[in-house]
Design brief:
Blueprint lengths: L10 H24 L6 H20 L2 H18 L6 H37 L2
Length: about 120
């Protein structure tokens, strides 16, 4: 017996909803290619988008689908809170990255030269 309380739909209902949504998507993609010669592309695209929206609605009725769409909504809320840097801040940061990259590459080249000269002196080259 499970120790956690069941708060959502029965597992069989969730499985059936997600399976139905997957079958709808596969059928929509199949229909898109099946009617390749009979319908113009914009009509097929609109049909595929309509099937995808209906399949998304069906999937959202399951517990895991609802959790997924809740996650997407919360992620969008967090995305709106992001403060983007100004142009000046971006340019200053990029310049610092370039300068540090050049300095580290020069330091590594110097270490390589010293180690190479040491090895050549030891080998007798």
């Amino acid at each position: 017996m499970s120790s956690k309380a069941e708060t959502g739909k029965p597992q069989i209902v969730n499985t059936l909803l997600l399976t139905l949504a997957a079958v709808m998507l596969i059928g929509g993609v199949g229909a898109y290619y099946w009617f390749q010669d009979l319908a113009i592309t914009p009509v097929r695209v609109v049909g595929l988008i309509a099937v995808a929206l209906i399949a998304s609605f069906v999937a959202a009725q399951s517990d895991s689908g609802a959790a997924f769409f809740r996650f997407i909504k919360e992620a969008d809320i967090e995305r709106r809170k992001v403060v983007w840097p100004t142009h000046q801040e971006t340019m200053q940061t990029a310049l610092m990255v370039i300068i540090v990259t050049i300095l580290i590459s020069l330091m590594l080249a110097g270490i390589d030269w010293v180690l190479g000269a040491t090895v050549r002196a030891l080998v007798g080259g």
